[in-house]
Structure formats: structure tokens, C-alpha cells
Amino acid sequence: MVEPQADIARIESLPLRLVVADMLRTGIVEGRLRPGTPIVEAALAEQLNVSRAPVREAIQILEADGLIDNLPYKGKRVKPLTAKSVEEIYSIREQFEAFAVRRIIESGADVSPLSEHVSAMFAAADAADLVALIAADAAFHRTLIRLADHGLLLTLWDHLALRIRQIMALRNRANADLRQVAANHPPIVEALTARDLDRVLSLVSQHSRSASEIDLKWLEVAP
Amino acid sequence: MVEPQADIARIESLPLRLVVADMLRTGIVEGRLRPGTPIVEAALAEQLNVSRAPVREAIQILEADGLIDNLPYKGKRVKPLTAKSVEEIYSIREQFEAFAVRRIIESGADVSPLSEHVSAMFAAADAADLVALIAADAAFHRTLIRLADHGLLLTLWDHLALRIRQIMALRNRANADLRQVAANHPPIVEALTARDLDRVLSLVSQHSRSASEIDLKWLEVAP
DNA sequence: TGCGCATCGATTGTCGACTGTATACAAGCA
DNA sequence: TGCTTGTATACAGTCGACAATCGATGCGCA
User: Fold this and answer.
1) Are residues B110 and B157 in the same domain?
2) Mean pLDDT of A130-135
3) A95, A120, B66, B183: which one has the fewest Cβ atoms less than 10 Å from its Cβ?
4) What's the CA–C1' distance between B142 and C27, in Å?
């Protein structure tokens, strides 16, 4: 159940379903709505002072994103996270990034946009600001994908990134070495700049796999 | 617009939105609803003798599948196919299949389930049955993905396969050499059986790229 | 003539009420 | 006792009506 909340803000007069979807999505990927939490249309509608229709549609959007499970006529819930699904998510991520860097190096795209995100990560690490670090990390990787100039890939990535954010929000944050996280990225930029495909691929692959291992470890204690 | 149709069959008492979604999906991937065709909720609802709610939800499902475009308050339509989107779809397909075969060879999974689909393809080619050939081809590739034992990959594949089917349905069918299509597949099975990763990768990649080229060629004359 | 502006039609967006389905639990029966 | 059968409840699913939005059309006016 989502915490009690006042009336819904209709920013920019977006359709309500999108506002509601965003609210739920944020709650899920930030870990406030944990896997398994029941999502009940009527309850949500009442809390947000809207009818069930837009709530229902919002839930269906998140269903398509793979964040919510639908058990027909029984109920919906935040999709449970299993070790296997975490492994699958990270292994696909590895493929996507590998594909992206191959395209980037082939096309000779300018990789300088990555640098500012690296700086942001170090700044966040120095300030011990985990939220900012996660945001900068996400921005770095999304930019990497964007440089591949592949619309479908970017769409698929955005879906995947949601689930990765969810996983990261769920793991025990106290144990992360923030500067280490930031330090993982400059070598990728360097290797990209040097057009050293093999080295980039190896770094990216290692990056995904170590993240996967960390998450699997922490999900054991907090499933 | 979908052709006039009597009352909707509520097979197995599935929720209406799923029945409607299936109907629309089939129409799109079989090419009866061509890219750009407007999809109007009210009209569909009347044709199918249901209310707008399930129709609306069905449309949203296909929106998530990437088959339908939504221009808010203006209308929805079958998403137009551009050369770039075709290229993107096939290039992602290539990545997925490459990933799948790497996993298959690593895990040593039994690839014999592929053989029956190859047989089916040759039978269809001999009978000059294009529909059966396309079905067998789709089954072959889906099985290949399934053998990788990766749930998320299979989900992503199924979405992609829809759009590939749509593209294939839209291209001029008279010009295909059916036996040639079938003949492309046995070498893949052989190389898989021999665990020859490099050769499989090369074959699979070639397979995707030639399909992409053919489709791009035919989409020029019928966009 | 040409330009702003009310109006209208088409289409999606939202609502509240009704209906269908599944589960659990209690009541009836062999 | 153990099985079936009813019944209550908590949901999702569907419906018909109404509201909001956008684009086009046509009208008045300089």
C-alpha cells in the first residue's frame, strides 16, 4: 500500500494515467513499494481522488514495463524479484552495452558527453550523496546507449534501466564504496576514446557482472 | 479499419481486452491493418459489440508492444514503419540471437528440438505454402531463443518477433525463393551441434542481415 | 482580401455504477 | 468424519454517460 497522500497534482494537464503511472513507477524503483506489495485499484483511486479507470490504465502501463504482476481476478502486486530475474536483467544489460559500444566505435561518435556524468559521479561520491551518485550513474549509462544512435535500443534500455534502479534501491546501501563506484567509469571513457573495442567490451562486461554479483549478494539478505 | 465482424467470440472467457488485443495484433502482424491505419476506439467498440473500456485497454497493450502510436487527444494509428526502424529491429534481433547461441553453446543445451522446425520449413517450401513457412521459421527462431533458458530474453524476443512478422507480412511475397529460405537453417543447426561458436555467430548474423536487406528493398516499393 | 476568433465535430480522457470471477469459510449431507 | 455445496467478500472487468482537448471550419471585421 502506498502511504496516504493528498490530492493528485495535475502537472501540465498530462493524462491522469500518466501521472499515476509515474507515481507508482517512482515508488517502485525507489524501493518504497517493495516487491510483492499488493496494488489495489480501488484503494489507490480513493487515495488519489480519481476514478478507477486511470489508475487501472496506469497499472497496465507498469505491467507492460514488467514492474507489476497481474493475477487475473485475484489482484495485482509489485513483481517479485528473484535471483534469476536479477541475473537475467544484468546479462541483458551487458549485451545492450556491448552492442552500443560496438556501434559507437564503428560510427566514431563523439564520446565527450560521457565526461560530465563521470565528474558528477565523483562529486556525488565525495559528498557521500548516494542518490546523486545513482542518478549520475544512470545518466552515464543512458548516455552511452544514446550515443549508439539506435532508437529501439534506447527504448529497450529505458525499460531495463527501471528494473535496474529498482534493484539498486532495494540493496543495502550502507555497504557501498561510493568512490569505487565512480572510479569504475573513467577507464571506459578512456578506452572508448582510444577506440579500443576489446578493452571497452571487457570493462563493460566486468562492470555489469560485478554489479550483478553485488546485487545478488544483498538480495539474499533482503528478498 | 478492421473488416466488419459479427459478435466477438469469448473463447475460454478470457478478459475482453485480451481478445480484442489479440484480434488487433493479428490484424497488424498479418498486414491487414497497414502502418498508418487509424485505430478509433469508438468505431472498434461498436463493431465488436463491446464497450470502449476493453477496446481502449487492448489498444494500450499494443501500444506497449510498439505496434500502435498514440497521439494524445488526436487519435491512434498503426505505427508507421520506416527504413530506420526496420534496420533497428533486425540489428537487435541479431544481438539477441547471438546472445542466445553463446548461452546455448556454453550450457551445452540439447539443440535437437530445432530439427523438427527445419523439417517443417522444407515441407512448407515444397508445398509452396508461404504462411506455413513463415510459421515454421518463427517457431525455429523462437525455439533457438528458448533454448538459451533466459526468461527475459524470451519476453523481449516475443515482442520483437511480432514486429518482424509484421514486416514480413508487408513485403511482397511473390518474390521469395521458399526453398532458399528453408535451406538457410540447417547449417545453423549443424554448427550448433558441432559447438562451433564462431561459425554459428557468423551464420546467424548473416541470416539477420540478409533478411534486413530484403525487407528494406521491398519496403521501398510499398511503404 | 486576409487575419483573428468563436464554434463545431471528432476523438480521447474520466467517472460512477454494475457485473463477473476467485477464494475462503461455513453449512449441509453421506 | 470427510466431502460437497452454498455464501460472503474482495477484487478485477465491463459498461454507458459525460468532460476535456485538439484541429478545422467558417464567420466577422479591418
Assistant:
1) yes
2) 87
3) B183
4) 52
Is the domain of B68 the same as that of B171? no
Residue A5 lies in a domain: no
Strand D nearby residues, CB < 7 A: A 13, 38-43, 52-53, 56, 70, 72-76; B 15-17, 50-54, 57, 72-74
Rounded to the nearest integer, the mean pLDDT of chain A is: 87
CATH of the domain at A175: 1.20.120.530
ipTM of this predicted structure: 0.87
Q: What are the backbone dihedrals phi and psi of residue B76, each rounded to the nearest 5 degrees, phi first?
A: -120, 160
Q: Which residues touch strand C (CB under 7 A)?
A: A 15-17, 50-54, 57, 72-74; B 13, 38-43, 52-53, 56, 70, 72-76
Task: State how far the Cα of B33 lies from the Cα of B77, in Å rounded to an integer.
Answer: 10
Chain D positions with any atom < 7 A from a protein CB? 10-17, 20-23
Same domain, B54 and B90: no
Work out the average pLDDT over A201-212.
92
- Which domain covers residue A216, as residue numbers? 83-221
CA distance to A158, A196, B90, B194, per residue, from A144 (Å): 12, 15, 21, 36
**pLDDT tens digits for B112-134?**
999 999 999 999 999 988 888 88
Per 3-state DSSP, chain B is made up of helix, strand and coil in percentages (nearest 5) of 70, 5, 25
pLDDT value at position B2? 34
pLDDT score at A71: 86
Domain count, chain A: 2
Residue B223 pLDDT > 50 = no
Does B153 lie in the same domain as B58? no
Asked if residue B144 and residue B199 are part of one domain, the reply reads yes
**Which of B164, B167, B206, B171 lies closest to B185 in space, CA to CA?**
B206
pLDDT of residue A73: 79
